[in-house]
Amino acid sequence: MRNLLLFIFFLNILTVSAQSVRKYSNEFLNIGVDAAAFGMANAVTATTGDVNSGYWNPAGLVKMGDNEIGLMHASYFANIANYDYLAGAMPLDDKSAVGFSVIRFGVDDILNTTQLIDEQGNIDYNRISLFSAADYAFTSYARKLPLDGFTYGVNAKVIRRIIGDFATSWGFGFDVGIQFDAGNNWQFGAMARDITTTYNTWNIDEDEFKTIQNAVPGENQKLPETTEITLPKLQVGLAKTFTIRHDFDFKTEVDLNMRFAETNDLISTSAVSVSPALGFEIGYIDLVYLRGGVGNFQNVEQFNGDYRVGFQPGFGVGFKYKGIHVDYAFTDIGDQSVALYSNVFSLKVDWSIFR
Length: 355
What we know:
19-stranded mixed sheet, single chain, 19 strands
């Protein structure tokens, strides 16, 4: 398995230069899942240990004590886009676990007005049609390593993207994550996304494309490229948990999110760009949780050409009772970031509640 992954990795390195490489590709997979993680500004790479680990770091799946189900819904862009997530995971034995998840980011009932004006130049509202643009992504496996405190996990991703009748694509890729429990409540985690690069191959309906090719003068004159490549990204995190008077647990984590391209991240070079994230969680008798964090640090260009540092603060609360976890997060408090804020709700159910 290791030799096969190495072969795939180097094969991708050799072919990337001949394909369409983009700084931002499959970005719906970078939004995140789980309101508890959003409340901590997504700084959970080292500490994640439930059904949602399939997204954040599959190595954390082995921390589950029983089967779990996770659900999440969020609305973006003033409820224009819906972001939904469903996941399930189960331990296979005391050393391994498996999970499956589905993510959908979609904009439904989009008005197609490219045929609004007929050949005579008349406006005909009956020529308006509707279409949807939706993205889907999916499977995780984790296992403990023989080394004490180490676990690893792998994601095999199948990506399906649909833009009405105009175009569809399939994509494939792998993520690899590790976690290390160093003792004394110190934890370390690393997550390499799209480690072999992720390929999306588009199938464009040329007949449908011709109907919009001249809708805007000078635009959409050529068929777009049919191959899209997502470059690897790396997240590393360090966390520490403190217990206060046996009633309160205080968990803190610092993550570094790295892209191997020059972007608007806080630290940006031609080789790598880095955006830090800091999150905390205060838990009371494993029943009520208060969370906060700040992340998504970006150099944002202003109208006068200057730059300022934008960031995205988050806040969240959670409640746990007999295996049922309900979490809420409000992201981008005060509209500090260029990202639009959202109210996020999620539900997690531990299967032990039914036993």
